[in-house]
Amino acid sequence: MKTQILIAALFFSGLTAAQQTKDSLKIKNIEAINIKKQVFKKQSDRFIYDVASSPIAKGTNTFNLLKQTPMISSIDGKSLKIMGKSDVVIYINNKKTNMDAEALIEMLKGTPSEDIQKIEVITTPGSEFQVESNEGVINIVMKKKKNDGYNGTLKMNNEQAYYNNPSAGASFNFRKNKWSVNSNFNTGSWTDRERYTLSNGDSTFRNESFGYNSDPNKNVGGSVNIDYELNKNHSLGFTYNMRYNKSFNSILDVTNWENGALINRTVNIENAQTRNHSFNLNYEIKTDSIGSKLTSNVSYLWFNRDKMSTNESFPLNTDPKNEYSALQQSVPQIINNYAANIDYLKKTAKGNTWLMGVSYNHTNTDNDTRQDKIENGAIINDVNQTNHFIYKERILGAYITYERKLSEKFSGKVGTRYEITRSSGEILGKTSFDRNYNNLLPYLNLNYAINSDHNLTYSFSSRIRRPRFWELNPSRTYFTPNNYTQNNPFVLASKFYNQEISYMYKNAFFANLSFNYVEDASNQIPLQGSVTGPKKDANGNMVITTTKFLRYIRTNYGNNKQLGLTLGMNKSWFKEIWTTNYSVNLGYNIYSGTVSEDPTSVPVQGQTEVVEPYVINFKNFNVSGNINNNIRLSSNKDWFLGVNYYYGSKVKIESGTLGVRQSFDVSLKKIMGNWTFVAEVYDLFNQNYNSIQGIQPNGTYNNVVNFEYPRILNIGVTYNFGNQKLKKAREIKSANDAIKSRT
Length: 743
Prior knowledge:
By secondary structure, the chain is mainly β.
């Protein structure tokens, strides 16, 4: 029998050789079918968008490419969401980015889409990821290129919104033998403009404010990554990131009415500077030939923000109660973080994978806030609002995950992360606290590939959300003298429990059913109330007065449950002339909690403070959707038209009911060799703005309309030069990744 099989094999191989010319066309067709990649697919714990195989990734930037990625959306051009709700953590080649939010968006807008191989969307991250709350992960995988040499990109943009906002960026990459150097630089000058309409009160009192904010910014940022291969198994790397932002003469100008009568005008002038420097040194050892490796790194982060402001209120009528008042603030914040971690990835010959690691973060923050009153030209320190807050935090974490393919159709991944948190805070000379807690955070992922057309996945994870460092700094940001935001050093960490069931059909249609439960949920809560106490009148006599206030206090309020269903499609039509990415998100939210006091209030002798209880108790159904279209206008693949639309229905949030939001965007791009020209209009009809109406059971209300002039015309040009097959540098996780996201 074996002889017959051998003879048959030789016969058919000879027949194939004899007919090679005759059947070459058929063979090429078969090869073309075999090597055609799936643009969008489900794999284990993530969705993979192979943008290198998609016509949409031509002549744009990475941020715009992410907006066109299934499950990802952006309505404001400044942030990204997964399935319309989950916050996003950006990884590049499995390394968490080292930048603050604004710098990260600028970097993404300056990175050419042609450098991207694929985008991985991880809706429920595993134990190995340093994420919090219900954050999802977007892992951007860069193309791996082979040759030595250099390349780079030059990019210029000009946005016309209320003001004209120019920006520019450049990247330069070099590889020679064992050395790799990757660097980028970006700079920009822009001014944000916002218009406000505020009203709050009850059946007996009504306060209204109208005004605008003009915030000029100048930004410089960049990074350099140096990687050296000691030999084929050992590599050493160094990374440096920096960003400087200057915002001087930011003006908030608001006119105030009380019960229909004109009261005063408040002008707040602010000067702020932000500096961010981070360093990372890493070392990698490959322990076998199938992908196992040991990685260690140490990191240092220095973050500094200085803010000084003057707030003045000018009376606009003859009522003696309405006097000139002024205050000035200095609110510096310094963060120092030292971190180290060791990770070990072990792969077995049978295809199983172990991941284990240990990390340590030590963070010190220093917030020396000073607030003064200005009376008759004299500066008088306000001892109640002046404070020096020191916060220290130490986090020891360890994780382990195990991934195994149980059969051709069934695979699983199980893991856990254990974190020990020790933190302490002290307002020097006033109060102090210690906050110590341990968390065991399990993770489970089960994937069932029913057949080539159907895939089903279940995921569970537990996470916590620690307060951001700026949220703990006990300082105020004034809108008017009696309307301000107040941070809270006593806010507790929140616990998140996330579950998902995902289904994909033919690598084009998907459904995701999720349920999230949050304990000790926190947010900025609008608290209304009054302060009654003695005050000097215009003649210098002490009289008893009552002053109404509105404070946005960041605090814990209770718990919430969120049930969501996302239905989507990513598909190309007419030989990839028309590429579509459509999705709709259905949500049902249940919020429950009450805030009955201001946790940051300091008792003042002779004064009585009354706070109206703020009740959060509602159930709400909401819907949002994205329609993204990319149309190839020429057979040469050098003209493209983009037509996108976003819709978000009314949705209840902690501060009230957020109104309908919409955005209709149009773009046109032209590719000419190494040059790409883009013209884009965002929110053509000016429909993307925030309108919040908050009404409490006791009749108090707080309404906010914030219009940011969202219609933007953007003109951009990009030039790529050098050897475009240059190999990229190695990417390594940074030890203080989790800390950077909280600055």
